Amino acid sequence: MFIVLLEYIRPLEEIDALIPLHRAYLQRHYASGHFLMSGRREPRTGGVILASVPSRTQLEQILQEDPFHQAGVVRYEVLEFVPTMTHKGLEAWQQA
């Protein structure tokens, strides 16, 4: 499981122009089951994606498809973690 932190490195006007393409990218990866949750950071300095993919290598390939990445408007920080406890109803995401 991965937490991807996005940091905007260009003005918000450039980010906003790419939002429709970025959302279409997110939708593709929600449909594939790779992304579980996403949203913007507050204050609006970037975003967060919760991802479930088999490997960091695969996640990095997925992130290269992001229109934000392709336009060079964000920087990513990837945190890998092993969820060992969850809220009731999310037990399927726990790992040993």
From TrEMBL:
Pfam families: YCII
Limits of the YCII-related domain: 1-81
Gene3D superfamilies: Dimeric alpha+beta barrel
Signal sequence region: none
Family in the record: Belongs to the YciI family.
Protein name as catalogued: YciI family protein
